[in-house]
Amino acid sequence: MSSSSVSPEQEQTGTSTERPVAQTRDIIEDIHKATGIERGEVGKVLTALYDACAARLANGEEIELRGFMKLGIRNYEARKYYVPPREDYIERGPSTRVNVTLAGAFKKKL
Q: Which fold does the domain 62-110 belong to in CATH?
């Protein structure tokens, strides 16, 4: 897990101010080590999980992965916003956002 913006000196001395970013392959490796399931199979399961969550969210369902997180969709209507420097209103079109709420049990592990 190394960040591309961290110099070799920072990596050696541990002086980087950036947090490391875990990639999908790192999570797959962690699951492989914990369970013994082949890496390729773990990757397939993660891909199936992503796809299933996306499909359910697209259908307007809320997803609750107990002890981990809750996912939901929130739709925002188009509306006008006042922009002081321009002294004008701009319109921001409708948008959809995914809300992520971490479970309390998961937060306690952090």
A: HU Protein; Chain A (4.10.520)
